[in-house]
Specification:
Blueprint: H1 2-35, E1 45-50, E2 53-56, H2 64-68, E3 76-78, H3 79-89, E4 95-101, E5 105-107, H4 110-125, E6 130-137, H5 139-145, E7 150-159, H6 172-178, E8 181-187, H7 195-198, H8 204-228, H9 234-239, H10 241-247, H11 252-258, E9 264-265, H12 268-278, E10 294-296, H13 297-303, E11 311-319, E12 322-323, E13 332-333, H14 334-347, E14 350-359, E15 361-363, H15 364-379, E16 384-393, H16 395-398, E17 405-408, E18 413-415, E19 419-425, H17 427-431, H18 457-482, H19 486-492, E20 497-499, H20 500-506, E21 511-512, H21 515-525, E22 533-537, H22 544-552, H23 569-593, E23 599-601, H24 615-627
Parallel strand pairs: 1-4, 1-10, 2-3, 2-5, 4-6, 6-7, 7-9, 11-14, 11-22, 12-13, 14-16, 16-17, 16-18, 17-21
Antiparallel strand pairs: 8-19, 15-23, 18-20
Helix pairs in contact: 1-22, 3-4, 4-5, 14-15, 18-19, 23-24
Length: 630
C-alpha cells in the first residue's frame, strides 16, 4: 500500500511540474506576442521613477518559480536605464515633472547611488520640477532625494542616517562547538574574507582598513548631500539625532522639517495633488484623490532606446560574483563572459572595447579566463578602456589589468589584491558522535582533501604554495599593468580595499569618470569622434520568458501608487539588520561548500552595498522564522 501511495505522489508531482512548465511556456509566448508591438505611446505627464528595490549595473536573472508563486522578489533596476531615462526627461516637453518614489528603495553601491543622484540633479538644474516622496529616508534614498527640488516625507515617517558599517557575523565559536575544522589558505594581511570562519572578532588590520574605507566613503556622502542641500542641518542628525527628535516631541518628520532636511510633510494623497497641480490638472478633474498623469519608467525607457548610429564601441559587462563556467545575468561566469566577448570580436565591427566592471571578485580561474579574452581584443589592435562601477575588487581588479586606462568614481570600491582558499573538514564533528575514519594510502595525496577525516600536512603545504603562487601572479599582473615594482604593489595589495579616490592617489586608477567618459576616451584612442559612436553592449538578450517575468515583477509601476504599501522608518532600518540572518545562512552555505579553488574575493565590499542576500538564503530564512512563529 505504501508503494502505491508513493507512486501516486510521484505521479501527482510530475503532473504539477508539467502544468507549471506549460503555464510558463504559454505566458512566455503570450508576452512575446504582446512585446512585438511598437514602443508604447507616451502621453504628457510626470515621469514616475519608482525605484522599488535596488539599482545595479546588471540585473540578475529572475527565478520563474519565485515570481509565479507570488513570492516577494526584490527588483533590480539597471543603472544605465535609470540615468538615460532621467537625462532624456530634461528637455522632453511631454515630461511635465519627474516624480521619485523612494518608499521601497533599498539602495545600491555608493558610486551607483551617486550617479543616479547626479542625474536627478541635472534634471533639477534644467528647471524641470523634481519631487521626491518616501515614508522613511535612509542614507541612499536621501542622497537621491536631496537633489530634488521638493522633498516630501510622510508625517508618520522621517529621515534618519546610519552611515556605512555595522556588525559583521563571526562563526569561530559556533565552528568550535560543532567541531568543524576550517582550513584556511591565504596571502595578504588584510584579506579578511575568511576571518568570520577563523576568528570571533575583527582583526586589528581589518578594523583599521575598514575604518579608513568607510570613513572616506561616508565623507563623500556628506559632501554630496551638503552640495545638493546646503541649508540642511544634516550634521546635527548625524551627531545627535536623539536630542533633535526628543526636542520635537518624538516627531521625526517634524524635526526633519525644522532642520531643512525635507521641504513638506504629507501623505501620498497630498503629494499626488501637488504633482497634479504642476501638471496643470485641477483636483476636481481627477476621479481618485492623489492620482496624477504618470509616465511609468519602464514605458519611458522602452520609448527612448540608446542610440545605435555611428561606429560601435563594445561594452563588456563583468557584473556580480565571478564564477567558473556559465552563468546568468548578474553573475560573471568565466565561460559566459568570455564567449560573449570573443563572439562580439568575431561578428561585430568594434572599434574599441570598454570593460565595465562591477564585481567583488570570486574565482581566480574565471578571472584569468576573462582577462585572456580581453587580451584578444588588444591583439586585434582595439583600444581597451576599463570603467569601474560600484566595485571592482579582488577578481574585479584582476580583470581590469588589461586596460590601457582605468576610470573609476571617487567612491568606487576597488583593490583587495589578495588570494585565499577555504576547506572545512568534519573529523571533530564526527568524533562527537563516535564516528571515525581510516583507510589505506598509496601516496601522500590519496583521498585528499579528506573532508571527513581531515587534511594532511602534504596537502596543506601544496595548497598554501598554490595560493602563494596565485598571489605572486596577481602581483605580477598589477605590476606590469600599472608600471609599478612588485614590491610596491605588494605594499598596497595584501588584500586591502580602497575607495576610488585613494586608489587613484596610489596609482591603481588613472582617472575619475563615468561609463560615458570611458566610452568617449575609447573613441578618442580609436581616433574617432566621441559624438559619432554608440555603445554596443556584449550581453545576452533576455528571452521572452525573462521579459515576461520582468513585466510581472514590475508591480505597481504602471498603476496609480496612491494606495501602495509603505514601509515606516524603524521597520526599514530593522529590515536591513534582519537581512543579516539571511547573510549568515549564505556564509554557512559557502563554508560547507568550501573548495580549494583560489578565490580572489572581497568580503568587506558587501558592507557598503544594499543588504540583499541571495534569494535561496532569503527563502530558507523565511522558512526558519515561520517555523518559530516570527
Amino acid at each position: 500500500m505504501r508503494l502505491v501511495r508513493g507512486a501516486w505522489k510521484l505521479l501527482v508531482a510530475v503532473k504539477d511540474g508539467l502544468v507549471l512548465l506549460a503555464m510558463l511556456l504559454f505566458f512566455g509566448l503570450l508576452f512575446a506576442a504582446l512585446a512585438a508591438k511598437p514602443n508604447p505611446a507616451i502621453k504628457p505627464g510626470a515621469l514616475l521613477v519608482a525605484l522599488d528595490g535596488t539599482v545595479v549595473e546588471q540585473p540578475s536573472e529572475m527565478d520563474p518559480f519565485a515570481t509565479l508563486s507570488g513570492a516577494s522578489v526584490a527588483r533590480e533596476h539597471r543603472l544605465r536605464d535609470v540615468v538615460h531615462a532621467l537625462d532624456k526627461a530634461r528637455d522632453d516637453k511631454r515630461v511635465t515633472a519627474v516624480v521619485l518614489d523612494l518608499d521601497r528603495f533599498v539602495g545600491g553601491y555608493p558610486s551607483v547611488v551617486a550617479e543616479v543622484a547626479a542625474a536627478v540633479g541635472r534634471v533639477r538644474a534644467s528647471g524641470k520640477p523634481v519631487l521626491a516622496y518616501a515614508t522613511g529616508y535612509t542614507d541612499s534614498s536621501y542622497l537621491v532625494a536631496a537633489n530634488a527640488s521638493e522633498i516630501w516625507v510622510n508625517p508618520m515617517g522621517g529621515a534618519m542616517f546610519t552611515g556605512p558599517g555595522g556588525a559583521q557575523l563571526y562563526y569561530k565559536g559556533l565552528i568550535d562547538k560543532l567541531g568543524i575544522n576550517a582550513h584556511v589558505y591565504r596571502v595578504g594581511e588584510f584579506k579578511s574574507a575568511v576571518e568570520p570562519y577563523t576568528r570571533a572578532d575583527q582583526s586589528e588590520p581589518a578594523r583599521a582598513a575598514n575604518q579608513a574605507l568607510y570613513g572616506a566613503i561616508f565623507g563623500q556622502w556628506r559632501e554630496a548631500v551638503a552640495k545638493a542641500r546646503p541649508k540642511a542641518k544634516v550634521a546635527d542628525f548625524l551627531t545627535q539625532p536623539d536630542k533633535l527628535v526628543v526636542a520635537a516631541g518624538g516627531d521625526i518628520a517634524k524635526a526633519n522639517l525644522a532642520a531643512g532636511l525635507v521641504d513638506r510633510l504629507g501623505d501620498r494623497v497630498a503629494f499626488g495633488k501637488r504633482v497634479a497641480e504642476l501638471e496643470g490638472v485641477g483636483i476636481g478633474d481627477k476621479k481618485i484623490a492623489g492620482s496624477f498623469k504618470a509616465i511609468p519608467l519602464r514605458n519611458w525607457v522602452a520609448a527612448n532606446p540608446l542610440p545605435k548610429t555611428g561606429d560601435a564601441i563594445g561594452i563588456l559587462t563583468i557584473a556580480g560574483e565571478i564564477v567558473d563556467g556559465d552563468s546568468g545575468s548578474g553573475t560573471a561566469g568565466g565561460d559566459t563572459v568570455s564567449k560573449l566577448l570573443l563572439k562580439g570580436l568575431a561578428e561585430k565591427e568594434l572599434k574599441a572595447l570598454v570593460v565595465r566592471v562591477d564585481s567583488p571578485g570570486g574565482s581566480a580561474l574565471a578571472s584569468e579566463q576573462m582577462r585572456q579574452a580581453i587580451l584578444q581584443a588588444k591583439q586585434k589592435g582595439l583600444p581597451v578602456v576599463v570603467s569601474m562601477g560600484g566595485l571592482a575588487a579582488s577578481g574585479g581588479y584582476w580583470v581590469s589589468t588589461p586596460g590601457d586606462v582605468v576610470f573609476a568614481e571617487p567612491n568606487t570600491i576597488t583593490g583587495s589584491i589578495g588570494i585565499f582558499g577555504l576547506i572545512p573538514t568534519f573529523e571533530n564533528t564526527l568524533a562527537k558522535i563516535g564516528v571515525t575514519t581510516d583507510g589505506v594510502q598509496t601516496t601522500p595525496l590519496t583521498g585528499q582533501p579528506n573532508v571527513m577525516g581531515g587534511t594532511n600536512a602534504t596537502f596543506d603545504a601544496l595548497v598554501q604554495a598554490t595560493i602563494e603562487n596565485g598571489y605572486r601572479r596577481f602581483i605580477g599582473l598589477v605590476s606590469q599593468a600599472r608600471r609599478m615594482s612588485p614590491e610596491r604593489v605588494d605594499q598596497i595589495g595584501q588584500g586591502r580595499v580602497w575607495d576610488g579616490g585613494t586608489a587613484r592617489q596610489l596609482g591603481l586608477v588613472d582617472r575619475f569618470g563615468t561609463l560615458s567618459d570611458a566610452v568617449a576616451e575609447a573613441a578618442r584612442r580609436a581616433k574617432l569622434d566621441p559624438a559619432k559612436v554608440h555603445a554596443e553592449y556584449l550581453e545576452k538578450e533576455p528571452g521572452a520568458l525573462e521579459q515576461f517575468l520582468a513585466a510581472m515583477n514590475a508591480g505597481e509601476e504602471d498603476e496609480d501608487r496612491v494606495g501602495s504599501a509603505s514601509t515606516d522608518l524603524v521597520s526599514r532600518l530593522a529590515g536591513e539588520r534582519r537581512a543579516l540572518l539571511a547573510q549568515a545562512l549564505g556564509d554557512a552555505r559557502r563554508l560547507v561548500k568550501g573548495g580549494a579553488a583560489m578565490q580572489a574575493r572581497c568580503l568587506e565590499c558587501a558592507g557598503l552595498g544594499p543588504v540583499l542576500p541571495a534569494r535561496e538564503d532569503v527563502r530558507l530564512m523565511d522558512l526558519m522564522l515561520a517555523r518559530f512563529g516570527l
